């Protein structure tokens, strides 16, 4: 579902990704962990084309991100319309929910399907109500974001991402803006989603959650992947001193 080879990214003179290699198989959950500033969010944003990579290869669901292979075998840059189509297949859930404040939960969820996918309002509403039930918020369909807790807003944001029927969902620290007592309800929804077979890439500080949910944990530091593998290896028996030090610092 995701193939990254030698992905490099700089902001001005500062190189923040030094050559990331990563494979995400369909239906798997990959958690990216590591110290602040190690490039986790930047890498996630590259997958979703919110940042453009400088070098390397990045493909989602078998397509180069931002490029296509021309008749002569060379890569040509995609135009805006083609990029929007690619981006549509990738859901993103942000740290700060990013719901439209002037729309109800239901309106937030149907906005993309009606506006972009051209679904009928009736179909989009029906699907949105199913999704609200899945995240345990059917009774809040007509509430505005300001009337919802942070945990509820994040669950609506997850339903909104799912409404676009993505092939992959990226989560950027989805619980780090929440009060501690609201973290569990969001993690529960994500756990259910993982069990339903959704492919997920999650930047998280929740090490216990990563251990529980991830098929693969990727430890990044300083713009490099230091090690990756099943949680029992990377979290339970890390090979690298930097991983050990990081895990000690967050425990
Ligand atoms: P992490 O998610 O691991 O905390 P980030 O990907 O957010 O790391 O950041 C990696 C580095 O890139 C940091 O040094 C950060 O300051 C820098 N950075 C991120 N986004 C930008 C940007 N838009 N412009 C300049 N520097 C940035």
UniProtKB/TrEMBL annotation:
The entry's keywords: ATP-binding, Nucleotide-binding, Transport
Domain annotation ABC transporter: ranges: 2-247
Protein's UniProt keywords contain Cytoplasm: no
Pfam families to which the protein is assigned, alphabetical: ABC_tran
InterPro entries assigned: AAA+_ATPase, ABC_ATPase_HisP-typ, ABC_transporter-like_ATP-bd, ABC_transporter-like_CS, MetN_ABC_transporter-like, P-loop_NTPase
Top-level taxon of origin: Bacteria
Recorded GO MF terms: ABC-type amino acid transporter activity; ATP binding; ATP hydrolysis activity
Keyword Transcription regulation carried by entry: no
Family the entry assigns: Belongs to the ABC transporter superfamily.
Protein name from the UniProt record: Ectoine/hydroxyectoine ABC transporter ATP-binding protein EhuA
Biological source species: Pseudaminobacter soli
């Amino acid at each position: 579902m995701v193939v990254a080879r030698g992905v490099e990214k700089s902001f001005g003179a500062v190189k923040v990704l030094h050559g990331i290699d990563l494979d995400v198989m369909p239906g798997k959950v990959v958690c990216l962990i590591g110290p602040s500033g190690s490039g986790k969010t930047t890498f996630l944003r590259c997958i979703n084309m919110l940042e453009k990579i400088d070098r390397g290869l990045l493909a989602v669901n078998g397509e180069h991100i931002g490029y296509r292979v021309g008749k002569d075998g060379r890569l040509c840059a995609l135009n805006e319309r083609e990029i929007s189509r690619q981006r549509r297949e990738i859901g993103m859930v942000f740290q700060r929910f990013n719901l439209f404040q002037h729309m109800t939960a239901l309106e937030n969820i149907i906005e993309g399907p009606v506006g972009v996918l051209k679904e009928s309002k009736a179909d989009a509403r029906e699907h949105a109500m199913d999704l609200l039930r899945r995240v345990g918020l059917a009774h809040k369909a007509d509430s505005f974001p300001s009337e919802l807790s942070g945990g509820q807003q994040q669950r609506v944001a997850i339903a909104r991402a799912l409404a676009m029927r993505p092939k992959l969902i990226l989560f950027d620290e989805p619980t780090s803006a929440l009060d501690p007592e609201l973290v569990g309800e969001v993690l529960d929804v994500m756990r259910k989603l993982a069990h339903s077979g959704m492919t997920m890439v999650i930047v998280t500080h929740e090490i216990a959650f990563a251990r529980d949910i991830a098929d693969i944990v990727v430890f990044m530091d300083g713009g490099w992947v230091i090690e990756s593998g099943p949680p029992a290896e990377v979290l339970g028996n890390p090979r690298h001193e930097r991983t050990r030090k990081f895990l000690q610092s967050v425990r």
